[in-house]
Structures
1.
Amino acid sequence: MGDNKRFVYWIRRLSEIAMIGWLSMMLLVDLAVAVGAGGLQFLVPVCGAVGIVAVVLRRRYRIEGFAVLMACSLGVSLLIGAIDVVGVPGSAESGALLILTIGVLRHVEPVRRAATLSLVAMGVLMAEGGMRDYHNGGLAFSFMLFIGWATAAGVGGYLRFQQERRVEAIHTVRRSERLELARELHDLVAHHITGIVVQAQAARTVAEMKPEAVTPALDAIANAGVEALTSMRRLVSVLRAEDEAARTPGTSLADLRLLTERFSAGGPGVSFEVGQGIADGALPPEVMTTLHRVLQESLTNVRRHAPGTGWVEVDLRLHERTVRLRVRNYGSATDPRLSRLGGGFGLVGMAERVEALGGRLLAGPTPEGAWEVFAEFPLT
């Protein structure tokens, strides 16, 4: 997972360097043109330099840099056009405007503001081509700049569309997981309340025959109430929307082992190790249920994306005040579609469930060549 991040990091860095180098070469061309044309043409490289700075700082000052560059470009165009001197559109200036237009259409919210800024950029480019009319070539310059703007707008709009599709898909998965957590909240609280009611009825019956036995019964009722409140606090942010799901009060270690046995029956072998101190009563019910879902999703991903896996290791252990689940598969190359946590919507959903309980979920290749899913839950 770390290697993939470093690779992506360096690809982005090299792309950034190449883009800045390209704009710098265009700025040198603008300087050469300014030396030949003289006059106010020397203001054009200044706009190009402002554009390069705006591109470098675009992630921090995206709208501000875009606005400063447009104001500078429009001001130079109006000045050159007003005094009717020879002028040539700046290549670095125009290139920076097109790059920033792509970023604005992709990232600026809301989309109405992004569209407005891109249209203003088109007007600035048209003013640049029309008012810097070099030997009656303004129409040709305007046409070329419009083609460039249309291409940049198309690229930015497409990237925004893909990004919004991704965000919507992740939102759908997370909403589904939250509804599932809400069902579990209903089941867990119903389970605890049922126990409280039964113990309260028993305490009333015992009180009539053996009053001294009421105190232990009240302690049991109080403990059941504390467990119910703990479960509610962990999942209270989730709203319940459906009632048709199956009702189960929780998951046991036997369910986890049965899951691995069923997987082994139709696929590669699975070794399941449970560390010392882990028992059904040692873990909160909502943690056990989520462990089952993480294990199920991990094994499903092995079957779907790594069919040539030789074997799978499942390890469930206590570490200080946390419980950790590791699922590793060996003997098959890692699937690039799951090289990042965001690559699979199933893992996005599992991360949502784990984080709802205060834990964390990681997925990626290990130095030994295996693919690992790691989930950790606090027990405090």
2.
Amino acid sequence: MNPRDYFDDYCRRYQPYKGGAWCYEDGCIYRGLVLLFEATGEARWRDHLLRLIGPQVRSDGSLAGYDADEFNIDNILPGRALIHLAAVTGEPRYLAGASRLMGQLERHPRLHAGNYWHKKRYPHQVWLDGLYMGLPFQIEYGLVTGRSGLVADALQQFSTALALTATPGGLYVHGYDESREQNWADPVTGKSPAVWARAVGWLAMALVDALSLLPPDEATASLRRATRLLLQEIIARQRPSALWMQVLDAPDLAGNYEESSASAMFAYALLRAARFGLIEPERTKTAGRGALEALLSSRLAADGQGVTRFTTIVRVAGLGGFEGDDRDGTPGYYLSEPVVSDDAKGVGPLMMAFAEGLQSAR
């Protein structure tokens, strides 16, 4: 099936991830639709976005099922689609909705080092996922509203998070616990023990999206250097298949496998970084395009009913914090989570990567 037809069919079949409540999983699809619309100008992507997100945003900007006092950083991601729709439709409810999300961030609890907690229920913790969920939105909102302090704060949070989660091998662990109370946290460093590919994928997309919004000046110079180094490490770990392993830094680990969502995230980040001049373009574009082509050729497959699915997506992975929770952050844990098809956390990034591939081919 042509990728555009797959995305169109997927969006027609798509059921809101949490019954219509505001959530980051839907936000992954919204982000993919925004980028497909920007890359193609085809009305169907905008129409899908309006059909899906419209019922979630009331006239006063309140959001269905959203509770700011949960202080869930994941809930910020769909706000990027609100900023886009405010610009293209002129409807005030969309920017009002984005302002509600920014209101959460203005009260959001932080580490002593200055970073947002991942969630109220995950206190004193930074996860790489959360950098993608919150910081590009904060930068974009700051630019739209002329609040330069929001941009500076987001850049500082990136810098601090990288320092807190860095590994000697040039990659980043999934999470950091300031309190050192979690069973997965190293008692000395506070870091979780493994390099999970999708966590690094969230990070790579966050960095590239943030820097593509900002000029190459002194304020972003150090973050640009860190981003180049990370992308170089990602390219170095690309498999002969052009994809990447679930436990990114342990390719020979028994049971490790090439995972689709992280591979789509890396494809997107590499293609966008090359297009915006964040890294040497030719090698980067080649790596990103190779990954995108491999995903389209090997991971889009018809199921028993003849419906095309995007396969080999780890459904979810996190870091435990509750009694009886076995999410200990070890490499073996990341290999124990179910693998599924058509999950929004994989399809959304594939849409993004495909859109970026169209942009980079021009």
3.
Amino acid sequence: MYKTISIFVLILLTFLAINIYIGWHGLYALSYFSANIIHTVYWVIFFVIAFSYLFGRIKVLPGPIRRFMQLIGSYYFAVMEFAIILLPLADLVAWFSRIADVPFNTYMPILIAAVSLLFLGLLVWGSWNAWVPIVRTYEIDIDKPAGDLQELRIAVASDLHLGNIVENRHLTRLVERVNDMQPDLVLLPGDVIDDVIEPFMRKEMSKVMSQLQAPFGIYAVPGNHDYYGGHIKEYVKQMEAIGIRVLQDESVLIHDSFYLAGRKDKAAETIDPAGRVSVQELLQDLNVTRPIIMMDHQPYHFDKAAAAGVDLLLCGHTHRGQFAPNHWITRRVFELDWGYMLKEKMHVIVSSGFGTWGPPIRLASRCEILELTVRFRS
């Protein structure tokens, strides 16, 4: 308990220090153009914005206010990260300008304008990447026969994060583009909802999702955010009511041709009282001479999946860091944080996801849908 409290206090103090640094720069810039800034009012407004995501989690506040605070707080996460990158650079430029005896009134307005335009440009570009989906195509050969099925077309969309920010408008984009592909099978590898199911139900998102069409069916697996709100049972119930089966450490034989296996998320190891089974246990009764496609939300332990006989592994979770430079971190944390790799004989694809967590901003990643063409041995 003491260690947990110490870590929390350290995180809080770090967050405060960073935001005091950011807030001071904002106040300095505003004061340059107007001397009438009331400092106390400024700091109260600034810290309300800085902590708004946390305030939005306080359940005693009315629902509309909480949702508004979460929206503001989500965008502020992006602003904070961009500020951590841009403001030290601005300080460095200001320092060199003073050393070079450049007049203060010459470099300061230029510097403020440049940083402001960079902030605006990053937010606009990041919003475009988050809301305008791209379709990425992969062609894969599996050296196993699948009965009379020689080719399979799959649409894959992970990390929808449906909630108060990613809503029906974005979900409609997914439905339209997936249906335009006319896939045989639609797969959703986790994080369909964003922590809580209330917005999903209040906005009747299931009505939009029910429009997805695929002759071999639509399947999902739970992601960590599907567990976090404590509504996993209701989520599964809502999905299955519209014909989307959520596989929880289960496998199905589809079209008498190939297996589709779906794992509970890694979060189930601590959140779900039943835990989750290993890949070996999940697949032990399957005929491994048939093709095996598996969904596992978090991209870990590829070697175990390959050893168990999986031919195609589909994951999400990473968002590829969602916005730069976080992708440098995910690249080092995960064996594969985005894209394709061949692990022994197993094909692995990790998607950067269709929705977003926190701010609807993406840099160095795109909102994406995967279109897979899988060919089997005759």
4.
Amino acid sequence: MEELKKKSKTSVPFSSITKYEESLLEKIRQKTKDMNLNNVTRTKAYLEFYLRYPDIHWAFLGHMVSRNGGWNMTDLKGEFLNRLLARKDRQLFFQFLERGNWLIFQDVYPQFLLYEESLRKKKPLFHLFAHLNISTFMGTIWNHYWQTNDTYILTMALVINEQNYLEKRVVQNPQYQKDVLNKFEFLLQDWLSFNHILFPYGNKMLVGLTVHQFESLHERILLGKRLYQLLFKNKEIHQMSVEWTKSHPHTGSRKDYWPDIFNSVNEGTPGLPYHLHLESCQLRPGAKRIYSPTLENAWKNEIHKEAEQGDWFSDWRIVDYLMEDDEFIDGEIKDEYCKTLERLELAALAKKAITF
């Protein structure tokens, strides 16, 4: 990690590039743009890359977390939040989620494509990261991975990188601070299923974790480390998760993992009073399923302004996060998640729109 110490003190100059490298960078930019249309295309791209290169563990972790991003986006047009949040607030919240999802993809996917090309060429091409606005931190780490095949360090470095990448661009962005984070802090922490990250596997089984202190960079990095452990430490859960993702294409609807509770078609009758659906995490007798639309039916594709320039990496001590933890993560989430759904239902029944 001596190299990171050096790089944290100096800016890395652009290297001159060959015609082949220029053409390669253009292809990478175009392919990233094509796959970065919306949450569904991103999530699919992560999984396809992981199935080609199963040593790149972050691609599967990114796929699973991105599925949750999609479910959060469609919740804003689903059964409960449609009743509880004003349209303008739902739009703001969607743009906040979408921007973060878009930013991470346009930073990490070019890294994957350059790794793929390095394998083809049988030589590392990570010096080209600077031309794609990718942190010098990741250039050092990918070179380390090329020599050592240390999947844990690579995965943790990607977790650290993506959360730092979002920090100034989204979490500390004054507009999002004002319009989303300050406004929705109570909702994020206490009400919504936004603070649950769920990993489905097997037959309607779930593990996951609850997000606390989303605004803390430190807490988000630790959460990423724990989610990784949950998904990769238990070989059986990992294998069943991968099989589940292959047989359940991501649509953004929560029907993907609980079709007996959620449906992407609205089964409710307009104008009729609201009735409770759930009891102890099961549908009540005769109750309709909870409406959870697909992303395609919930939101149009956003046009994004270019990612803000700049390298977050300035303090080499961030490498402390690369140390492996032996913390046991049990991942029991179902009861907590069911309680959240029941709270939302009661609020929807009371029809007390949450206003700010």
